[in-house]
Structures are given as C-alpha cells and as structure tokens.
Design a protein that fits this description.
The protein is of the alpha/beta class and 319 residues long. It has two domains: 203 residues, D-Maltodextrin-Binding Protein, domain 2; 99 residues, Periplasmic binding protein-like II (D-Maltodextrin-Binding Protein, domain 2, 3-Layer(aba) Sandwich). Helices cover 41% and strands 15% of the residues. It starts with 5 loop residues before the first strand and ends in a 5-residue tail after the last helix.
C-alpha cells in the first residue's frame, strides 16, 4: 500500500459533511481498516473538490454532487463514483399562505428563498419548474436565506420577505397542516430516491490502490453507522475534536439526531436508480451527451466489498 497521505475533500462547508471521517478517525476505523494516512477537510465547493481531483491534489471527494462528477467525466476527467452519500432528497416546496399562491405558475415575479445560489435545494426547485415546462430562472427572484428549517423560513414567509422555499420534510408536514400551500413534495417526485451526493475517487486511486480504497470505504461505512446509532457519542467526538456548527445552521436541528444523518446509506451504496435520474436530467438540458450512462462513471465493486466485510463482522452495527 502506498504510504502517501490521501487528501479527502468535502466540497460543502457544513460540519455535517465531515462527521463520518471525524468519527472514523476518532474511533480508529481508518487505521483498523487499512485506509492509511488520510487528511480530510472542506474545500469550499464541489467545483474546487473536482478541480483538485483532476489536478491530482485530492484523492477522494467525500460528498460531490453527481451531476458535476458526471459532467467532468464527460469532458475527459479521470474520475469515478465509488460510493453513495445522500440517496434521497429531504425537502418539500412550500409557498407563503394567504397570497393566492397555489401553483408554480403563481410564483411569476415572486421571491424564492434558497440556501445557496448553486445549492441542492435550488437545483430541485429548478427541476420542479422544468417538469411543468417552466423556467424558474426566468420567473422568480432568488434570495439566499439560510437554513431550510421552519424556524428560519416561516418568519420570512409571514413577513412577506419571501414567497416560497424548499423546507425540510419534517417541518414541511406541520406547515402544510397550518395552511402553507404545498407546491411540490420531493418524496413523491422521486419515489425511488435520488442521488443527491456521492463519493468519488480519482482514476489513480481506483487503478493503483483498490485495497486501500476499499479500506477507506469500510471505515466510512462504520462512521455512517456510528453517527446514526450513537448520536450523543458522535456529538461528543465532534466537539472534543474542536468542531463547531456553522453560523448559518439552525442549531436546534442538532438537539436531537440531525435529520440528514438518516439520509446517508448505512451500506455506503449508490442509489443507482437515483443516479440514472441525475444523468437523464443532465441529458435533457444538454449538459451530458446522449450516449452517457451510469456505466461510464460508476464503479461499485469496492463499496460492495466494503459493505460485505462490515456486515460479516458487525451485522448492522459498526463495532
């Protein structure tokens, strides 16, 4: 096995995106599973992560959006998707009540709150509009307004500052009961899930160090399970390691188990049907060639072997 340090990059800056490697390091999983010396960090964006991988500075992308990985691959980048990270969307699209907004068409000229200009909630909003033959970018004004929680978004609705937003599913259900119009439920739009984020590796890693890559995936899978099964201990590990919640995060969401933890697959697998949806969406807007398929980007034999190993030793657990 190579003695070189691997650089594991999370594109997104939120703490959630590096909890698994924090746990894997603290619990000794990286060492036990033969992942070698690894350093992990937040690069600042998926684009930076992918560029770093293309240049050979980063070895593994912990959380990139798959449409960006596919786009880079179609343009000749030597990258592969080797695991899943988020396999289903966590939002519903709601409108402010009492303003006569009952459909997407009613949002023409209105203000839509998003977490980030190129965030996943923005992508899903555009997709909802596109499904009805509408162009969100031509219809609405985007406003960057923080967390997708009810606590952050409902005051913006009620004050008139925004007219619609993606809201995390658990909060959205209660708001709908209180009269906020539901314009799109992503769990129904994507009943079989959606490849929201994945794990990717460079061609050199895949070809030259398959055993080490499988070891890293074993360690991450154990981290995914630990953070879901032992939440309080997870947060103690995170705090002891010196990490803090981001300023734009709704801290109340972390008082119980953070709602996104359960979106991480306990076997580390890619939602293949969800990945196909991503690819078809990108083809539909001309960002991938018609011949592109999941077989061009997905190599899942390493994560399957990793999951099998973890299951044999720990059942559904992590230790």
């Amino acid at each position: 096995m190579s003695q070189a340090k691997w650089m594991l990059s999370a594109g997104h800056h939120h703490l959630f995106h590096i909890v698994a490697p924090i746990v894997a390091r603290a619990r000794g999983y990286l060492e036990e599973e033969g992942a070698g010396e690894c350093d992990f960090f937040c690069s600042g964006s998926d684009a930076i992560t992918i560029e770093g991988m293309k240049e050979g500075r980063y070895h593994v992308g912990l959380d990139p959006k798959p449409f960006l990985v596919c786009g880079a691959k179609a343009q000749g980048a030597d990258l592969s998707i080797v695991g899943g990270w988020l396999n289903s969307p966590a939002y519903a699209f709601l409108a402010a009540r009492g303003r006569g907004i009952n459909s997407l068409k009613d949002l023409r000229g209105k203000k839509v709150s998003v977490r980030e200009p190129d965030g996943i909630d923005t992508r899903f909003t555009r997709a909802l509009f596109r499904r009805e033959g509408l162009d969100a970018d031509q219809m609405v004004q985007w406003l960057v307004k923080g967390s997708r929680s009810r606590r952050f978004q409902q005051p913006l609705f009620d004050s008139g500052e925004v007219d619609a937003a993606m809201i995390i599913s658990g909060d959205a259900a209660e708001m709908v009961k209180e009269g906020y119009p539901l314009l799109g439920d992503l769990s129904k739009v994507y009943p079989n899930g959606y490849a929201v984020r994945v794990t990717a590796a460079t061609g050199d890693v895949v070809r030259d160090e398959p055993e080490r890559l499988t070891g890293l995936l074993r360690a991450l899978i154990r981290g995914y399970r630990f953070m879901n099964q032992r939440y309080r201990e997870t947060m103690e590990i995170v705090q002891k390691a010196g990490y803090e919640l981001d300023k734009d995060m709704d801290a109340s969401l972390w008082e119980g188990k953070y709602h996104m933890f359960e979106r991480i697959p306990p076997d580390g697998m890619v939602n293949e049907a969800g990945l196909e949806l991503v690819i078809e969406e990108e083809k539909a807007v001309g960002k991938l060639p018609g011949s592109f398929s999941a077989g061009d980007i997905l190599i899942d034999r390493f994560v399957k072997a990793a999951a099998d190993s973890v299951n044999r030793r720990f059942g559904k657990g992590c230790e």
